[in-house]
Amino acid sequence: MKLAVIKGDGIGREVIPAAVEVLDAFGLELEKVPLELGYARWKSTGTAMSEEDIETIKSCDAVLFGAVTTVPDPSYKSVLLTIRKELDLYANIRPVKPLPGIVGVTGRNDFDFIIIRENTEGLYSGIEEIGPDFSWTKRVVTRKGSERIAEFACELAKKRSNKLTIVHKSNVLKSDKLFLDVCRQTADAYGVEYGDMLVDSMAYSLMMHPEKYDVVVTTNLFGDILSDMCAALVGSLGLVPSANIGKKYAFFEPVHGSAPDIAGKGVSNPIAAILCVKMLLEWMGKPEALLIDDAIACVLQKKIITPDLGGGASTAEVGHKVAKYVTQNLKQ
Questions:
Q1: So what's the pLDDT on residue 332?
Q2: Which of the ends of the chain has fewer CB neighbours closer than 10 A, N or C?
Q3: Where are the alpha helices (DSSP H) in the chain?
Q4: Are 18 and 316 in contact (CB under 8 A)?
Q5: pTM value?
Q6: pLDDT of 44
Q7: 42: buried, middle or exposed (CB in 10 Å: 19+, 13-18, 0-12)?
Q8: Quick check: is 136 in a domain?
Q9: What is the domain extent for residue 140?
Q10: Distance between CA 1 and CA 28 in Å, rounded?
Q11: Same-domain pairing of 224 and 108
């Protein structure tokens, strides 16, 4: 198997090496292909990612990705959106689950749900026009896109509690009626119990009653906002991983951004990136992926934590301790 490793910008250049150290601890036969993409490359070459880079990524099976800095320049082509489109990574998966000893803004830890976000359409269609007095972006919702994300969510729900929540805004956005109808029809076909909620009501309910939800499926922008919001339930953006899955490829990235304000200081939290390694191993069908949960729990219990969680450990130190735990316990 070939894995493209892209550190990207900012703290991506710190958390990805920590995550790779954990990945290496499993001793898998894995060819890693390093690539330099993002804002730093754009500044030096004028190109954040070339066609050759896309072809290199397509020659791999999966991608482990750090973070990229957003560039306020109309000529800058989004690296993330381009990769998602080129690899047809239609399903974004964001698990929201508390970690041992860490509580978020609500002070509770009785939840464990997953947000499934349609990843190629909606307001991230890339169909837009920018002008000095008038700008627009086309929101795209298709039956094909809705069906395949609904099927993905239903298949996951069948493996869990067989419950699905469909999030939309069809009372205002008429394009959401198609998404809602398709999701309902798909859930019926799969025999999955479902309900639906308007996105604004869902935002409130997720903060107040997160324990009520299991698998949540929604459109692109809503899923992006809700999943970032739910990082507050867990305790930090530095604790939340994500996966982008297609029929052929998979792409794993921590939810946090490039955080240029702390980049280079060695204080960024690598746990989200390490949990991305867990998701990668699960995608590969490796049951030993669960060892990462035990390793992280051990590190947290010993208070080997970065400043965002109130500790004084470095990014590299946390990664090294997690990797050491994996090495010591892998054969047991």
A1: 62
A2: C
A3: 12-24, 39-45, 51-58, 79-87, 143-159, 175-190, 199-208, 220-234, 271-283, 291-301, 315-329
A4: yes
A5: 0.93
A6: 83
A7: buried
A8: yes
A9: 103-234
A10: 9
A11: yes
pLDDT digits (tens, 9 = 90+) for 170-198: 999 999 999 999 999 999 999 999 999 99
Residues 52 and 78 in one domain: yes
Q: Which residue among the candidates 39, 53, 90, 169 is catalytic per the annotation?
A: 169
Out of 90, 124, 194, 213, pick the active-site residue: 124
CATH of the domain at 310: 3.40.718.10
Q: What is the per-residue pLDDT for 73?
A: 73
Other Cβ atoms within 10 Å of 97 Cβ, number: 15
Claim to verify: residue 130 and residue 218 sit in the same structural domain: yes
Number of domains in the chain: 2
Residue 200 among the catalytic residues: yes
Cite the DSSP H helix spans in 126-270: 143-159, 175-190, 199-208, 220-234
CA–CA separation, 83 and 80 (whole Å): 5
Q: Which of 228, 286, 293, 324 is catalytic?
A: 228
Which of these is catalytic: 214, 224, 308, 325? 224
Instruction: Answer yes or no: do 60 and 138 share one domain.
Output: no
Residue 96 lies in a domain: no
Distance, CA of 316 to CA of 221 (rounded, Å)? 33
Asked if 163 and 259 sit in the same domain, the reply is no
Q: Catalytic one among 200, 204, 247, 265?
A: 200
Those residues whose C-beta lies under 8 Å from the C-beta of residue 126, and which sit 6 or more positions away, are 81, 85
Amino acid occupying residue 48:
A
Helix-helix angle 12-24:271-283, to 10 degrees: 50
- Please indicate whether residue 88 is annotated as part of the active site: no
**Residue 294 bears catalytic tag:** no
Query: Distance (Å, rounded) from C-alpha 121 to C-alpha 89?
Result: 11
